[in-house]
Specification:
- The protein is of the alpha+beta class.
- The chain has helices at residues 3-12, 19-25, 27-39, 48-58, 119-135, 157-163, 225-243, 281-301, 321-334, 354-357, 394-408; strands spanning 64-67, 74-79, 82-92, 141-149, 174-183, 191-192, 196-199, 201-210, 214-215, 250-259, 265-266, 269-278, 305-311, 317-319, 362-368.
- Helix 5 (119-135) links the parallel strand 3 and strand 4.
- Helix 2 (19-25) crosses helix 11 (394-408) and helix 5 packs across helix 11.
Length: 410
């Protein structure tokens, strides 16, 4: 069957009739919840206000609700009219520790916290998808797990929810999973994904260089760790470009260098802190083995010693090929062909939905929400203090969550 045949089949399927229109009808509710969450962002694993807002929004939908113990998560299970498989839909709820300068009327009222990655939009869209699917539960053969997750921004929230049984909440193993991630730097309403790696692993590392302190006027009486640390930056960049294939990439960034207290003192120590992003487990392991070797040899050449520490982050996010292709087919049918481009390249950012995809065939997909009148490559990106998402894109996200579940539970 050709892609055109697939699209025609989906278009003729009564389960998808009026789906986008139904999502648009829910737009006032979606926007209201999103703005409520945006005004009151919360950080990390403990999100009591966000959790309460989700629980209130789910009232009356006949879903079985469970609250997390290790984190303020919400798991809601919707049962269809007939038995069948289980599908999981995920939204993350936490914000970033940063100020907001967007100028929005509903900007954050919490100092030092902002929904700059769009998790407020994910949560609002998934609640509306639950409402839409509840209205069509007679078309569902199986169960839908709605996974509202705290702690995506570096706190491993998905891993905690897996430990607490989110993947078994439907009474049988999850057979398909979907997470949508909004982005301000893609055309509004576009849904895009790709098979295989779509986002990178992320590990943080710290190298401490130790020399011997002394007077800035007499460096020959000291062992200066600062030149050693400076040399490490260039050596590490060279190591990545010369020892790893561009077709299985590694990205290494030194994000912080700290040394000294004043201008005329040679410090005893200097510290480098950075991140490593990779797409494969093999390169991830190799690059983390090579960084301390480079640092040790550079330090020794300067008469210094070094110590090294790694904070392990998220694994790479890898989409199931069949699930990714199906999302694009659904997007083409439900939203229109121009809203379903294949994503050309993966991103080197990281995402803890990777923990779910290690255990369940599924996919992460991106939803474009570039503000009106702005070119996508000029829009403030996710994690910017000025990021702004086009709310009209939300209906596409709601429809895609619902279409994925309806398709999986036919």
């Amino acid at each position: 069957m050709t892609p055109a045949d697939h699209a025609a089949t989906l278009t003729d399927d009564p389960r998808f009739t009026g789906l986008l229109e139904a999502a648009r009808a829910l737009q006032p509710r979606t926007v209201a919840l999103r703005r409520q969450l945006h005004k009151h962002p919360e950080l990390g694993l403990r999100l009591p206000r966000s959790q309460a807002a989700v629980l209130h929004a789910l009232e009356g939908l006949g879903v079985q609700v469970t609250k997390g113990e290790q984190a303020d998560s919400v798991v809601a299970v919707l049962s269809g009219e007939r038995p069948g498989p289980t599908v999981l839909l995920r939204a993350d709820m936490d914000a970033l520790p940063m100020p907001e300068d967007s100028g929005l009327a509903f900007a954050s009222e919490e100092p030092g916290a902002m929904h700059a990655c769009g998790h407020d939009t994910h949560t609002a869209m998934l609640v509306s998808a639950a409402r839409l699917l509840h209205s069509r539960r007679d078309a569902l053969s199986g169960r839908v797990i709605f996974m509202f997750q705290p702690g995506e921004e570096g706190h491993h929230g998905a891993r905690f929810m897996i430990e607490e049984g989110v993947l078994d909440a439907g009474g049988r193993p999850v057979e398909r999973a979907l997470a949508l991630h909004i982005t301000a730097t893609a055309t509004s309403g576009v849904v895009t994904c790709r098979p295989g790696p779509i986002m990178a692993s992320a590990d943080a590392w710290t190298a401490t260089v130790t020399g011997r302190g002394g007077h800035g006027a007499m460096p020959y009486h000291a062992v200066d760790p600062v030149p050693a640390a400076a040399a490490m930056v260039g050596a590490l960049q060279t190591m990545v470009t010369r020892r790893f294939s561009v077709f299985d990439p590694a990205v290494l960034t030194v994000g912080r260098i700290t040394a000294g207290t004043t201008s005329n003192v040679i410090p005893e120590t200097a510290e480098l802190e950075g991140t490593v992003r990779t797409m494969s487990d093999t390169v991830r392991q190799q690059v983390l083995e090579e960084i301390p070797k480079v640092c040790q040899h550079i330090a020794a050449a300067h008469g210094c010693t070094t110590s090294f520490a790694v904070k392990t982050g998220y694994p790479a996010t890898r989409n199931d090929a069949e699930a990714a292709a199906r999302v694009l087919e659904l997007a083409s049918s439900v939203l229109g062909p121009r809203f379903a481009p294949l994503m050309a390249d993966p991103l080197m950012a990281a995402e803890d939905f990777s923990y779910v995809l290690q255990k369940v065939p599924g996919t992460l997909a991106f939803l474009g929400a570039c503000p009106p009148g702005v070119e996508p490559d000029k829009a403030p990106p996710n994690h910017s203090n000025r990021v702004h998402f086009d709310e009209s894109a939300f209906a596409h996200g709601v429809a895609m969550y619902a279409a994925f579940a309806l398709d999986a539970l036919r």
